[in-house]
Recover the amino acids of this structure.
């Protein structure tokens, strides 16, 4: 399918594809087994000038948007969804600054992220605040020229590895979702430490840790936007990064499909390649249909988001649901096509199946996405009456 990418988008996709094929695919199984964080791969991504694809040129980026970010994520995820997450998680941590940072904050933080010399992370989730994002307990209290943060963020992608953290905390509990604020916290700030590295089912090359704030004092200039805007910062960020999760899912599904197709042509049973059996052919056809349908929705959603359209929550949620459910289905079927070999750890698809699962869970479970979609549909219907 021709998606009519611009010359620059095509170049970005090809550069990311080259890194995926040459640098990531050969080490993906090892990094998964050892839970090794991909610092070296991030260096290749930086050298290819891809770290800043979604950052404005005046801050050292390539001036693209969610689409360019997603193209990179998709290609990297084709080889390893976990390794790709070092890049995608940085995008998640950076979007609050892109969307809500003032000029000084953008000048201070974005160039280092664009060059790849620093990584970012996003701190919203807590032990008792997952789907219910408004349930966060971490507090930020203004004291003179500083905010003092206390609390613990859980399951933070790039936790401990990132240098720059965008963190949502409560500044006025009585105001509910309107009582949250967003802050930039730098690694190394006294009172800011990390929990142990989590042992995960999939995306094992990615690093997931708690962020612990104990009387952590940050300059009041690190407030993003203004007090009370934290929930909106989080929601508007997720509206722009959920297509990135969709792209990750799309990449994982594509990687699994490619492996299954290749295997089916090589594996001989009953005297012929298993690809000659209609039972396998239909599975391959269904996988390809689902992937292409997901790609159409993901790419179009990215374009819609980048167009500056106001209402993007429903579309972002749809792309995430569609692509992540596709990734789960396709990776399960890829294991099935490859049979016993698919189940073995020396072949890539069992890992892809484990990696796919998280895309139905993080940045809002697919059940929460369906809530977002349904509420928006009902709102639109009542407005058009
Ligand atoms: N853009 C802008 N504003 C938004 C918004 C969006 N996408 N979503 C909600 N808001 C606003 C609402 O308009 C509302 O504003 P008012 O107070 O002015 O009315 C406010 O934010 C609160 O919204 P709402 O009442 O819908 O909040 P809920 O507590 O019911 O939560 C969901 C809404 C479930 C959608 C939210 O909690 C969510 O996205 N949960 C999943 C969180 C998540 O993705 N976690 C993963 C962590 S990051 S890896």
């Amino acid at each position: 399918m021709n998606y009519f990418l611009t010359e620059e988008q095509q170049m970005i996709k090809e550069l990311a594809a080259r890194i995926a094929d040459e640098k990531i695919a050969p080490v993906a199984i090892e990094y998964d087994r050892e839970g090794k964080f991909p610092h070296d791969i991030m260096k290749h991504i930086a050298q290819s000038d891809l770290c800043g694809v979604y950052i404005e040129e005046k801050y050292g980026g390539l001036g693209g948007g969610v689409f360019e970010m997603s193209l990179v994520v998709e290609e990297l995820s084709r080889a390893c969804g976990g390794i790709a997450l070092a890049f995608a998680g940085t995008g998640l941590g950076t979007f609050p600054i892109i969307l809500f940072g003032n000029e000084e904050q953008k000048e201070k933080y974005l160039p280092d992220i664009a060059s790849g010399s620093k990584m970012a992370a996003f701190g919203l989730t807590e032990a008792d605040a997952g789907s219910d994002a408004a349930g966060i307990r971490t507090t930020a209290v203004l004291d003179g020229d500083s905010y003092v943060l206390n609390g613990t963020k859980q399951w933070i992608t790039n936790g401990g590895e990132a240098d720059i953290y965008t963190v949502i905390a409560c500044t006025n509990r009585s105001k509910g979702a309107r009582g949250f604020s967003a802050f930039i916290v730098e690694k190394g700030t006294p009172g800011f430490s990390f929990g142990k590295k989590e042992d995960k089912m999939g995306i094992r090359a990615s690093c997931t840790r708690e962020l612990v704030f104990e009387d952590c004092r940050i300059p009041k200039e690190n407030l993003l936007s203004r007090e009370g805007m934290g929930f909106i910062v989080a929601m508007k960020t997720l509206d722009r990064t959920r297509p990135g999760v969709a792209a990750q899912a799309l990449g994982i599904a594509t990687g699994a499909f490619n492996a299954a197709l290749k295997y089916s042509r090589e594996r001989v049973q009953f005297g012929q390649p298993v690809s000659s059996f209609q039972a396998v052919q239909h599975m391959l056809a269904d996988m390809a249909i689902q992937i292409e349908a997901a790609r159409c929705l993901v790419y179009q959603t990215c374009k819609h988001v980048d167009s500056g359209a106001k209402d993007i929550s429903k579309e972002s949620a749809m792309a995430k649901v569609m692509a992540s459910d596709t990734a789960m289905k396709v990776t399960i079927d890829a294991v099935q096509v490859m049979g016993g070999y698919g189940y073995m750890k020396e072949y890539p698809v069992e890992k892809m199946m484990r990696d796919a699962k998280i895309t139905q869970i993080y940045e809002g479970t697919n059940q929460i996405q369906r809530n977002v979609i349904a509420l928006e549909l009902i709102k639109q219907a009542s407005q058009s009456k």
Observations:
- The pocket of coenzyme a persulfide is lined by residues 124-125, 131-134, 177-178, 231-232, 235-236, 238-239, 313, 362-364, 368, 372 (CB under 6 Å).
- The chain has eleven helices and ten strands.
- The chain has three domains: 7-119, 121-230, 231-383.
- The domain at 121-230 is CATH 2.40.110.10 (Butyryl-CoA Dehydrogenase, subunit A; domain 2).
